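Two quick folds needed for the group meeting slides. Do the first one here.
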Amino acid sequence: MAKKPPNADASVSSAEAQLFRNSVSQVEPLSFEERAGDARAQKKSHTTAPVIHSLEGIEKLDGDLFYRPGVSRRLLNDLRKGRIRPGPVIDLHGHTRAEAKRELAHFVERSADLYERCLLVITGRGSHSPDGYSPVREEALALLRQLSAVQAYTCAQADDGGSGAFYVLTGRPSR
């Protein structure tokens, strides 16, 4: 549809035109790359949370979601919604950070070697700790991002522990 010509009745006085020219005289247009890049980035952004690329993986939702390139959106959705039922379970309540790290590394590696596809890692939320956060949880999530056998993780469904537990998708990276 073609644009309509400006309305002849809506004339601009010479003073208004001069005021406009003065106000925009110092403005510099953006380059094409700046305009197009910003618009595409805003359009593709589905979340307001920052995305962090961690050891060749993508971390979202303040660390509660992590996946490596190649993990399909469908598989990630199935994991998130609890459709992939976890096999082995590890409960890290009551462990120190060092103990939790050691136990979790061994558990994940052993489970991946046995071709267990989905694990349940219970860390707790830290709601009873003096600072209100779980150092074991933070340590566990940092370790999961580093282990090559971990393809993805996400918070568990409420029935499996909610935000105090994580579904972990394992698999050896293809060579």
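Then this one, please, same format:
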Amino acid sequence: MNETHQNFADGRPLQLALREMHGLLSDRRTYAIVGGVICILTLSGPFGTSDDMTLLPRLLFWSLIVASGFGIGNLTGSMVGHTLRLAGLARPLCYALAGFAAGLAVLPAILILNLIFFQADLTNTGYLLRQFLNCLIIGGVVALNLAIFSRNSRTSPDPQNSSAEASSVLDRLQRRLPVEKRSPLRWLSVSDHYVEVATVKGRELLLLRLKDAIEEIDQTDGLQIHRSHWVAKNAIEKVSRENGKTLIHTSDGPILPVSRTYLPELKARGLLPSSR
């Protein structure tokens, strides 16, 4: 049982934000979009950079600006967004506040780069205000990205893997998972507002209720065994009784408790150990 619950610590906002960042960095489309933005800014030279800089310095400047906005902004925005969601705030408000936080986090990097490249006067209030507004625009882009990423992770399969998925039927819940973890389900366990989903290829935390997660399991044969746990029938290695408690030993190691409410279903399926 401890093996299951020790993984719940991985579900804190920072770890979840790092997982999302890893997902973005693992997607080739991310590099295409970031590279495209850098090229557009370098060639167009907005904010006077075409007048003040030659091509190569301008390319370096905008590369650093975009990389800072993408890295710092997305990581901060995602972490703040998860924190606010755990606090129970509505999703649109979470996105708005996460975008604002992302803009604030990016501001120091933008100021430092402007100081290095342009010897900017950081005591000029008007200049600082303009940079702050620019960073809010970056924050707005981050908020939009978070909304799109969240929606896609909840509803859309990866188009690059649609042909591979066509050969096997997936539960709706599995389509929420990163592509590399979309494999047969083993078990689900609750962690705060999240559900830890264990598959043959790994584990992932999803922001939804266990009840909703179970409703999205429409292909895998399994059963709820506790208010906080669900297990696939094929993942049950054995069922035991210890100190009056019924426990399910799963094929990948974790031991899950069975509450009395769900014992009749185990009995009906012939999964309970024979009593002596």
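Slide caption for protein two: Confidence is low (pLDDT under 50) at residues 1-11, 154-168.
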